[in-house]
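Weekly structure sync, notes
Attendees: PL (lead), two postdocs, one rotation student
Agenda item 3: pending single-chain targets
PL asked that the sequence for the first pending target be pasted directly into the notes so everyone works from the same version. It is reproduced below exactly as submitted, 398 residues in total.
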Amino acid sequence: MNVLISGAGIAGTALAYWLRRHGCTPTVVERAPAIREGGYKIDIRGAALEVITRMGLLEAVRRERTDVRGGSIVNAAGRRVASMDGDTFGGRTGEDAEILRGDLNRLIYDLTRDEVDYLFDDAIASLTDGPDGVDVVFDSGRKARYDVVVGADGLHSHTRALAFGPEERFVHDMGYHVSIFSVPNHLGLDRWELTYVGAGRTALTYSTAKDTGAKAMFLFAADGDAFDRRDRAQQQRRLAEAYKDEGWEVPELLRGMADAEDFYFDTLSQVRMDRWSTGRVTLVGDAAYCASPASGQGTSLALVGAYVLAGELASADGDHAKGFDRYESELRHFAEENQKLGPKNIRQMVMRSRAQVWFAMTMLSLMARLPGKDRLAAKVVEPIHRAATAISLKSYER
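Predicted structure, written out during the meeting:
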């Protein structure tokens, strides 16, 4: 099977790896000039950890871990209200791993770069789905026919728009904005995370073993607050306005966005679709079932989704429709369980009133001194673990 994958992120490179392993011929087209390095820290849990193990990458992932030692909640004066170890702060248990997104992407890319054709600095301009294949025209003018096309191009998937229609039908704004970018480590953090919570506004900064600087992240309530995704200056004004009255280190962190090459700003959104496939085109990862960064499961969904899609296509013996149906049947429950985490988590991460913030800070301060605090932390992590293991992975090897 000759497969075109749009997007060289984690979903796209992982799909290319598994398709090649099953004897298919994948081609990956990526708008950027190379795979994206750096990025924010992400978690690999449950079934996704098993996928990484089957790829032979577990030890490499362990070597590249962020090694964040812990985190603290701080108030406006900078006092640490509560602190906990890195795994508890990040909602990890057992063998769960934390790594920078770019490091994981590079590890998977390195597995595939000598066996997969990567078309960087290009993108799909149009596609025509027919009985014998999908005719694709690229931005570069190149033309080719593929048995199957897979959109692995994220929340704002261009492939999804071409095959299924405008994103307004599928992308659901959760009522919050998120921004993240690199900043100087002016607090001298050593593999530590600090989180400040205000009414409707959360800000955090962290350092990792892989970065001499730091990252700053902002989450804030913004119901129906539209913006231009191509206008960075407008986005930065919007962010500065949202946090103009906040204390702690927020003003200093915001100053860092002017020089940040990796500035990112978007809505917190989920993708919900009745079908992930139409004709010979299908979707994987955020393009199909984005759970939002608030879920903490975007990378795990991408890894598991790529594994299942490749396996089901390979086992369908050339019948793409059968492969797509089995992919959706096998993965739907897992995707939905992980999407449920997003709305619940964001309500705990961004609190809407000063009274909520005061109550949460008081409880956190008390919990830090209570006996049995480890059991309380385990109860918080349990829903994440349950969603992360909500699938039994088949073996597709022949």
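Discussion points:
- The radius of gyration is 21 Å.
- The longest helix spans residues 320-339.
Action: rotation student to compare against the earlier draft before next sync.
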